């Protein structure tokens, strides 16, 4: 969704035990860069519905959102606002969309801040990873019901 030149996007850390799912998108500008599943909010869609939809489209997984690490302004583009959620698998199976996703992997949460992973937006990924490691995850109730 765009609003006055700003883009609003969502992403999700799908946590499974001590691992989290990372993806490599198949877009030229971010090819070979790792990130969490996510994308733009469609017109009329809530931020949580967009997060669930994007995970399904990109990975094949159904996800149940369990919390948020809230919002970030992208360090790559000050006109992008990211709402990041934490979730768990609720069904489906890993079936990356070949036209959108180049690769997927389950990474140890503790390895997310190692500096060994080439991230799409390292600053934002570091913030999200630090929150996951410290358990600084907010309940979904931080969002006004009109956003959900």
TrEMBL record:
Top-rank taxon: Bacteria
Similarity field: Belongs to the Nudix hydrolase family.
Source organism per UniProt: Paenibacillus ihbetae
Keywords: Hydrolase, Magnesium
Pfam families reported for this sequence: NUDIX (PF00293)
Domain Nudix hydrolase: 5-130
CDD domains hit by this protein: NUDIX_Hydrolase
Molecular functions per Gene Ontology: hydrolase activity
PROSITE patterns associated with the record: NUDIX, NUDIX_BOX
Protein name, UniProt field: DNA mismatch repair protein MutT
Protein's UniProt keywords contain Hydrolase: yes
PANTHER family the record matches: GDP-MANNOSE MANNOSYL HYDROLASE
Signal peptide stretch: none
Keyword Magnesium belongs to the record: yes
Record-annotated membrane-spanning stretches: none
Cofactor(s) needed by this chain: Mg(2+)
């Amino acid at each position: 969704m765009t609003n006055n030149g700003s883009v609003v996007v969502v992403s999700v850390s799908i946590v499974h035990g001590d691992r989290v799912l990372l993806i490599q998108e198949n877009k030229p500008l971010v090819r070979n860069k790792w990130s969490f599943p996510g994308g733009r909010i469609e017109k009329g869609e809530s931020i949580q519905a967009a997060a669930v939809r994007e995970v399904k489209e990109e990975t094949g997984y159904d996800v149940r959102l369990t919390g948020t690490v809230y919002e970030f302004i992208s360090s790559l583009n000050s006109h992008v606002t990211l709402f990041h959620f934490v979730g768990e698998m609720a069904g489906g199976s890993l079936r990356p969309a070949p036209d959108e996703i180049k690769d997927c992997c389950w990474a140890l949460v503790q390895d997310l801040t190692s500096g060994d992973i080439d991230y799409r937006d390292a600053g934002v990924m570091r913030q999200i990873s630090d929150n996951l490691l410290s358990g600084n995850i907010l309940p979904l109730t931080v969002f006004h019901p009109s956003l959900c």
